[in-house]
Amino acid sequence: MIRFEHVTKRYPDGTTAVDDLSFEVAEGELVTLVGPSGCGKTTTMKMVNRLIEPTEGRIFLDGDDISTLDPVALRRRIGYVIQQVGLFPHKTVLENTATVPHLLGHPRRKARERAAELLELVGLDPAVHGGRYPDQLSGGQRQRVGVARALAADPPVLLMDEPFGAVDPVVRDHLQSEFLRLQQQVRKTVLFVTHDIEEAVRLGDRIAVYGGGSPRGAGGGRIEQFDTPAAVLGAPATPYVADFVGSDRGLKRLSVTPIEPGDLEQPPVLRLDDPSSAATSRLRELDARWAVVLDGDGTLHGWVSADALAQAPDDQPVRDHARRMEAWLPLGASLKQAFSVMLQHDAGWIAVLDGEGAERFRGVLTPSRLHEALRRSIDADARGASRADVALETIPGA
Ligand SMILES: Nc1ncnc2c1ncn2[C@@H]1O[C@H](COP(=O)(O)OP(=O)(O)OP(=O)(O)O)[C@@H](O)[C@H]1O
């Protein structure tokens, strides 16, 4: 979809910002460009929508050499999101989002309908936020409007330059997971610039790690490694990349390793309407101290302790003693999210449900299973095997 062929950019003062770059981004792929300040990420990106012209080499968009295209027509095919969102301060959120469809000739009402859909898509309620002005929004909400506006013309390509750079880490984390969810729906071809390796690893299908011009690197403007997050973390191509991803790359893998069905434990499961007496005998038989409690339709209600049930009158249903469980995640969420939810709820385990809108209970993830999943994923990469095929050796406890 986007192809760089031997692209070099030298500024008039002699700075080589991008040096003989060749790479390709497939349709629907999200590639993150990551590297230290001044390594040429923004220059790379701005050459795609012709805000900057290359000195040498060619860039193709869907097979077209972009130097032969009219820049305005080209930019219509490309959404652009930057850190300083650049919303019109005197226009409401809905008007800001409707600007592009309106410019493209959609009638006003249609443009506004489309804008409202897009706001919902990025997690804003058009009825609540649509009528506000940009300065009545939080930083994170403004970034969401920026993303909605970039999607308004439904361009096949998105360029995003540190779009979440200006918000605090908690909001950034939210925006990243929302953006991942959104990208699964819209499947745009995305070039995403960041200087944050964790963000690059979490969002990218593949990552381009730029050299920083350090003594150990190949210099600015060149890509040192272009590969999947797992490969960049698991097998850094050069000492520079190993340095850049950091010695805690095992920990960084938490954010790229999804919870899989094989990671889960299956505790005893009770239903809300089960009588306490029967439930107690079952837990005794299994020597279990607690059980997961499900609604009649198999969705998660919470949990119940064996002690609470044992003290209940026989005919009382489990419902009267069950506690709600807020610590849950869908399958496919990252191990990092799992760890964070465990800490947030001070929970010894979290419930894992089906993803994709279904809430069916699939099992629980415990700290030791989480640790195992992480070790398996690191080993699997080192051996080029799948996670399920890795047998772990463990140092025995004292
Ligand atoms: N207009 C310009 N004239 C001269 N040099 C420039 C110009 N714009 C950028 N540069 C230089 O080109 C190099 C690459 O800049 P670029 O903005 O692409 O880096 P970056 O990786 O996006 O950095 P950051 O993360 O700080 O935004 C830097 O050394 C920068 O100083």
Automatic annotation (TrEMBL):
GO terms for molecular function: ATP binding. It comes from the Bacteria. The keyword Amino-acid biosynthesis does not apply. InterPro entries: AAA+_ATPase, ABC_transporter-like_ATP-bd, ABC_transporter-like_CS, CBS_dom, CBS_dom_sf, Gly-betaine_transp_ATP-bd, P-loop_NTPase. Keywords: ATP-binding, CBS domain, Nucleotide-binding, Repeat, Transport. Residues 322-380 form the CBS domain. Residues 2-237 form the ABC transporter domain. Belongs to the ABC transporter superfamily. NCBIfam families: proV. This is Betaine/proline/choline family ABC transporter ATP-binding protein. It comes from Streptomyces humicola.
